[in-house]
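Q: My collaborator sent me two sequences in one message, no labels, and asked for predicted structures for both. Can we handle them in order? The first one she listed is below.
A: Yes, handling them in the order given. First sequence, followed by its structure tokens:
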Amino acid sequence: MWQARASLLVAVTVVAAAVLPGGAGAVAAGRCTTSTPVKAYDKCIALPTQGATLAWTYDARNATLDAAFTGSFISPSGWVAWGVNTDAPAMTGARVLAAFSDPSTGALLALPFLLSPDVKLQASPLVSRPLDIPLLASSASLLAPARTVRDGAKVTIAATIRLSPNRARVHFVWNRGLYVQGYSPTIHPTDASDLASHATVDILTTATEASPIASTTLQWLHGSLNALSWGLLLPVGAAVARYLRPCASTGPAWFYAHAAIQATGYTMGAAGFALGLVMGAASPGVTYKLHRGLGIAAATAGSLQTLAVFFRPKTTNRYRKYWKSYHHLVGYGCVVVGVVNVFQGFEVMGLGAFYWKFGYCLALATLIGACVALEVNAWVVFCRRQQEEKLMRREVEGVVVKDRAGAF
């Protein structure tokens, strides 16, 4: 028990170092400039994600905001967008300008889009339409040395917008994507930094209220603990119980090995789940519904398995068989959900095509291969024993018949 508490204490200590300002997870702010290829501006800030910057001049007399957003493409066929949301720092309801190459001519375009709730749900393609806010001017231009849209090319989206009088706090949103279908930008990546690409800026003082993002250290610790526990240790513990228990030579050793592995895996998994909760609290507005739902399901099943140990009936109890059925069903369900969620976590962290996922797949494939071999061997042994028992019954029946015949 003290080992579990020590593991949780270490996890909490790392969390504190990663989350608190100045800790290992702190990210240095970038630099901005008021001088752009479009014109010179009065103020500028470095936006908190994607290495983007924003420069602007605000004329309080007519409430006109003259701004230039600078971002970078992540694909030759991609897009970069920036805009404002009059209601909240969120994508839904934002009025944006998206820059991308014209599919017909290859020239750089800057088209207006209204991000309705249907866009977030991907219920319909994104179609350009005039904005319902006073957009006085807009343009997009690539920054030298880039001459065409390519991965890493920087672009400046400039716009002049008339704001509501005496409105100094403006909600800005920005993002970038990989593809444009015709003249319709497709969904952007769903990494934590992409989902947190919005901020509220005081255009008079440059004060910025950005959505905090869980540190990279915290993300890697969360992923490592969960991949090792839910993704490997718990499946190994289940395999130990299934394939070592029938071996009479192991005695009760299989039970102690199974209990030790599962206890270690559950402790690490609980720590990883706790880190996930901390990351969620540190990143409001950034949600991964499927990953979160699977994580809650796996943690619930693991907790039920742990609690069930304290209510295990004795082997002579008539309810023992029902307890075993429950234990097997919940246990295997926990293993399946945990493994699926590990793959979902790779996608969330953007590691779907990296060596980390390949390494995990290799380890999981090795475990599955060993289980298949052991399963085949178990069935061979089972069939052999059945055949031997059948032959023994025939011999016994033959002896009985002979004895009866001799008696008469």
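Q: And the one she listed second?
A: Here it is, processed independently of the first:
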Amino acid sequence: MEARLRLLLVVVVVAGLCAAVASAAGNSSVVGYHGDPTFNVRNYGAKGNGQTDDSRALMTAWKAACAATGAVTLVLPPGTYYIGPGTLKAATDLKRFGNDWVEFGWVNHLIVSGQNGAAFDGQGAASWPFNKCPIRKDCKVLPTSVLFVNNNNMVVQNVASVNSKFFHMALLQCSGAKISGVRISAPESSPNTDGIHIERSNGVSIADTTIATGDDCISIGQGNDNIDVARVHCGPGHGMSVGSLGRYVGEGDVTRIHVRDMTFHGTMNGVRIKTWENSPTKSNAAHMLFENLVMNDVQNPIIIDQKYCPYYNCEHKFVSGVTIKDVQFKNIKGTATTQGVVLQDVDLRYKGKGVSSSKCENVRAKYAGFQNPKPCP
């Protein structure tokens, strides 16, 4: 797709409606950036009255814009646009959805930029009781609010996501993405409402963002390379994680992860690497640096869990097929709500001449089970 779309969203939550979407334009005669052609959804039949289903009109305008060449602007004049799955508006009836609600896919140089409090409201509260994933492995996954799939060199900035049904935002097979100024919120009790999930992507940066949710603020899944996270405030939630990894056949390596200058407040975890045991495919999680992190009343500031299993009945009979190597934690400070550090069943072997070793400074640790290398005194 050669068209480079610039979508300006301003979302206003209106009583009794799922969401209202308008562009930053004050009228329908808006001119595109630098004289670029514009596609006004009103010209394609959108009413913007909060009652008429504008799904078909917005999709028609979107396809017309994508068929153009060069840089184009998709314009949504001020109004209340009631739209269904696959466009820009969440309903509460789960029967209307597939795997996601809003999908931006196969676009080069996509810009999603919000102004004046732009937000995606997932209306998730009505759906959370139907989420059985925290207790059932074969659960039906609820729709992600905003999915970015197969986009190259995109920018997402100054938008908000509230009360998603499942993940707030997900990046799948994206190359080159800059996310900044994003605000994500859902109650601490909301299940699986990960803030930003990344999978099979490369060259992704997330910066200057605030995430308060019921699950991982940021989750970096399998097949990712060169992910940079900076100046993100996380809390409440489950912290920031690499994983879970090693659950499915054909998972790719996770490499070159840099997390820096993050603040965690009241989260269950700080930074966590989690892998399933008995992985069907061998993979690596390598070259990761976590530095300059502040933990404020965090239960478990640092976790490496190679027997991850969130369900009630877990046997823990097998080892993980994910090899973790070259991981550094630097300058991590703050307060924890659990006593000390507990290391249990650690087996990290050095692939080279010599043996692995451990070093501790300013830590009071407890040990259980097998320990390799030998623990600090």
